[in-house]
Specification:
heterodimer, A: alpha+beta, Beta-Lactamase, Heat Shock Protein 90, six-stranded antiparallel β-sheet, five-stranded antiparallel β-sheet, B: alpha/beta, D-Maltodextrin-Binding Protein, domain 2, eleven-stranded mixed β-sheet, 9 helices, 24% strand, elongated, disordered N terminus
């Protein structure tokens, strides 16, 4: 991915992220505002409910007080046989528009019941248990009816005539008509759950129209409020149909939860608002991204042009053209960078030239040192021999012939040595290109080791060849590979002056081959291993340091790889892998 | 259907007269039409008897019957020219019609009795109507029937709903006919009823009850409440809903025990008892009929009629509840 593409992507992502963040913040603020508004509306409904509850309660109290103070109530209170008043409660309830009314004698026995006429004579023990009903406000009560149970707002007053007392317990059922009296704002609705059955009953969850269809969904909320006797909130449904319900417990005189008031608030407005904001954000984001791409295309072209030139110049430098430069067209950071690049390449060229010069000098010095060292050894015997011959000619003419014969022999030997040293240097300088052909390494190893049998035996070295019969011929120059093997064997011989074991191993490696030469000599240190293939480097007291350099050069010409594995005191293994 | 005019009235004593004070005596005179309303609605005139001294002249099934004075009646022509009987009027409607002067003689139930204005003529017979619970064939477990019999609090119903009319009874025939009705227990025993119900499977504890007469719905409701105390689940249903138990009233048409028992047994769907020759056999026959609690006698109730101010003479009914219109006349008031 190009720098320009990345910049474009960066612009687009930045715009999208900015729009997303703004949208998230606005959505969050909107949701908070909506929830605050919802809370205010719920509080208003609850306040309205409380007010209506209180108003109805006061109305019921007044009605019940009126009945208790009526002549008929006093008449019933004092009559010895109240059976004649069996239907009186029904009449009074109808007249006073009460759903429930019971006239109860002082001992708690029902004289007349509007809601359940057949219960005459049954005891309402909770009425005599309260010493003073006159000051009690209306309260919620679960009232049993002939074929059902109702939740009612009740009030109790007493009619007294002398020592006789009559309880007047009247009230109205909290039903859908009561819910209908609560005016809820648009999008809100009020539900009432009447806790009448031992378990949750969907039929007891009503709104102003009666039982609601989705009662089962609100069961967890109702049960939570019943259990904890505290307010709770639950959202049901998803999307536009989502609705949040605030549930409040309605407690009876014994502080038991007799009902649950549920205020439902549709989340349609919020969802629609959020969707509108989302769409706006999407449109803004898309527009912003398109604009960012357009502007970015133009801006990045300007920004990336010098960078691209820099990259091209850097590529040229990497390819070896250290003299590559960049046109400096501005004074900004990019211009400064281009200037710095030009200075850097200029310095690189200068440093390279200095380095080459230095290396060249060092190489010449090393070559001169090595040549001096190599040539000095044979020159010293030559000088001694000539001086011996001169001394013998002057001091012992009778022995001169013998000295002369020995001296010339020595001179010839040392001159041959000098010739050999010069030949090695000449060979390294003139390493020919390999002539590739199919070579059987197993045969090559066997023949080479045969040449060294006598030398190895003389040096006390046991040689073994472990040749892989599965090895196939490799593409190589047989003569150069022979030279490689010979150098490695000679190195091994030099590494084992006290004798040892030499192992040459071939291993088939797929279509290629591996050649290993191992000795049990004194081994090498890691530092020695690292410098082993450096020309003119040697760990021996004699030698040119060109042997392993030649080996590495040949292996390299064969597209192969050479490595060394050694442990001080245990031996060394040279490993050559050929393609 | 019972027939009040089929009774041998000659054997009976004079009708029990329960009248309020202020029944002003006027001179009898001929003429006028007596308007009578009753709850029942006989399907045909054959089962609808004819009052003494009258002949049936008009019959509109389910609506009305008109009786006209018989000039050749054995006891002499009645004072009234006609008696027009409205059929199938509820007790409440009858009471309203009496209040508004649209009827002269109506039946009075307990509720209507409570509302009667002072000075109104009220005639009552001896307890001649048996109110009882009759089980249908679905309730096969006798323990259910016995539990309900023990659960019903007759005293409360008698005191309040029936306004102490008639008498509580555990017998089919009233005490005034047999003299041994008190031997049949009518006491409630809720603990025993609950123990019986506890031994019954829950499925058998549910049954339906219907009152044949809508006027008795309040009594059915109270029985339902009593049954609930005994852990029996009774639902009150309309009579047409094929209930498990029916609250029925049947009229006792004979003053002698043997005939009365036979009539009641037939009316309640029980086996007709064998002829009894003495009170001991009559008692045993009744005891056999009540074994198994297929029928639970509750009360023996009188026939009660109220008359408007224009009605003179009387009484309206005999001790057995038969109509006696031949001694009545009506005063037309300006």
């Amino acid at each position: 991915m190009t720098f320009r593409t990345r910049l474009l992507l960066l612009f687009a992502v930045a715009v999208a992220a900015a729009v997303g963040v703004v949208e998230a913040i606005v959505s969050s603020r909107a949701r908070t505002a909506f929830e605050n508004m919802e809370a205010r509306r719920v509080n208003a409904i609850v306040a309205q409910f409380d007010k209506e509850f209180q108003r109805r309660g006061e109305e019921i109290v007044r009605t019940v007080e009126g009945i208790a103070e009526s002549p008929v109530a006093r008449e019933i209170a004092i009559t010895p046989d109240p059976s004649a008043y069996l239907t009186e409660a029904g009449t009074l309830a109808s007249t006073n528009r009460l759903d429930l009314l019971e006239l109860v004698a002082g001992d708690g026995a029902i004289v007349s019941s509007a809601q359940w006429q057949a219960r005459f004579g049954y005891k309402e023990d909770w009425l005599p248990a309260e010493p003073d009903w006159q000051s009690r406000p209306a309260f919620l009560k679960r009232e049993e009816l002939p074929d059902s149970v109702a939740l009612a707002l009740m009030a109790v007053r007493t009619a007294t005539a002398g020592d006789m007392k009559l309880y007047v317990a009247g009230g109205r059922i909290l039903d859908r008509e009561f819910i209908a009296s609560l005016v809820a704002p648009e999008g809100m609705r009020v539900l009432l759950y009447r806790n009448l059955a031992p378990a949750f009953s969907p039929a007891d969850l009503i709104d102003s129209q009666g039982p609601i269809a989705s009662a089962v969904l609100l069961r967890p909320l109702v049960e939570q409020v019943e259990k904890q006797a505290n307010e709770a909130v639950l959202t049901i449904g998803r999307g536009l149909s989502a609705e949040t319900f605030h549930a409040l417990p309605l407690k009876g005189s014994a502080n038991d939860v007799l009902g649950v008031l549920l205020v439902g608030n549709s989340r349609r407005d919020l969802v629609e608002l959020e969707r509108a904001m989302l769409w706006t954000a999407v449109i803004v984001a898309v527009t912003g991204i398109l604009m960012a791409i357009a502007l970015g295309w133009w801006a990045t072209a300007r920004v990336t042009r010098p960078v691209r030139r820099l990259a091209e110049s850097a590529g040229k430098v990497a390819a070896g053209n250290w003299g590559a430069t960049v046109e400096v067209s501005s004074k900004d950071e990019i211009g400064q960078l281009a200037g710095a690049f030009n200075r850097m390449t200029h310095q690189l060229v200068e440093q390279r030239e200095r380095l080459v010069q230095t290396e060249r000098v060092a190489a010449w010095r090393e070559l001169a040192r090595r040549l001096a060292h190599e040539l000095k050894n044979p020159l010293f015997p030559l000088q001694i021999t000539v001086e011996n011959m001169q001394r013998a000619r002057e001091n012992s003419p009778e022995q001169f012939d013998e000295v002369f014969r020995e001296g010339t022999s020595t001179l010839l030997a040392e001159l041959a040595n000098l010739k050999q040293i010069i030949g090695r240097f000449s060979d390294f300088a003139k390493m020919p290109a390999p002539e590739m052909q199919a070579v059987n390494l197993n045969v090559l190893v066997a023949e080479t080791m045969r040449l060294f049998e006598a030398q190895l035996a003389k040096a006390g070295i046991g040689a073994s060849a472990q040749l892989d019969p599965a090895l196939r011929p490799v593409h190589a120059d047989g003569e150069q590979m022979t030279r490689v093997l010979r150098n490695l064997i000679l190195n091994a011989v030099d590494a084992m002056p006290e004798g040892g074991a030499l192992t040459v191993r071939t291993v088939a490696m797929g279509s290629g081959a591996r050649l290993e030469v191992s000795d049990t000599g004194q081994g090498l240190t890691p530092e020695e291993c690292e410098r082993l293939f450096t020309p003119y480097y040697t760990t021996k007291t004699h030698g040119t340091g060109l042997g392993l350099a030649i080996v590495q050069s040949v292996v390299s010409d064969h597209k192969g790889r050479i490595s060394v594995e050694s442990e001080k005191g245990k031996g060394t293994t040279f490993r050559i892998d050929l393609g | 259907m019972w027939s009040p005019w089929s009774v041998e009235t000659k054997r009976l004593a004079t009708a029990l007269l329960l009248t309020a004070a202020g029944f002003a005596a006027t001179r009898p005179h001929y003429g006028g039409t007596l308007r009578v309303e009753i709850r029942e609605s006989p399907p045909s005139p054959e089962v609808f008897g004819v009052p003494q001294g009258f002949v049936l002249t008009t019959w509109e099934a389910g609506k009305r019957a008109i009786f006209t004075a018989d000039d050749n009646a054995p006891g002499g022509r009645p004072f009234l020219d006609n008696v027009e009987v409205q059929l199938g009027r509820s007790l409440r409607d009858q009471s309203v019609d009496l209040e508004l002067g649209r009827a002269d003689v109506v039946e009075l139930g307990a509720t209507e009795l409570r509302r009667q204005a002072p000075g109104r003529h009220v005639w009552s017979s001896s307890p001649v109507r048996l109110m009882a619970l009759v089980f249908g064939p679905r309730i096969v477990d006798a323990r259910v029937r016995e539990a309900l019999a023990l659960a019903v609090d007759r005293n409360a119903i008698h005191s309040v709903l029936l306004q102490k009319q008639g008498e509580i009874s555990g017998a089919l025939l009233p005490q005034w006919i047999t003299g041994y009705a008190f031997l049949f227990s009518a006491a409630a025993d809720l603990a025993k009823a609950q123990a019986l119900v506890a031994a019954i499977s829950p499925a058998d504890r549910t049954l339906s009850l219907a009152a044949d007469d809508p006027a008795n719905r309040a009594i059915a409701d109270r029985i339902q409440l009593n049954a609930r105390d005994a852990h029996l689940n009774i639902s009150v249903v309309p009579p047409t809903a094929n209930p498990d138990v029916r609250l029925v009233e049947t009229r006792i048409a004979f003053a002698d025990a043997a005939h009365a028992l036979a009539g009641v047994a037939i009316a309640l769907g029980l086996n007709e008892p064998p002829p009894a020759r003495n009170p001991g056999e009559e008692y045993l026959a009744e005891r056999v009929l009540l074994d198994g609690f297929h029928v639970i006698p509750l009360f023996h109730l009188p026939e009660v009629y109220g008359a408007g101010a224009r009605v003179q003479g009387g009484p309206v009914i005999t001790q057995l509840g038969e109509w006696r219109f031949d001694s009545l006349w009506v005063e037309e008031r300006p």
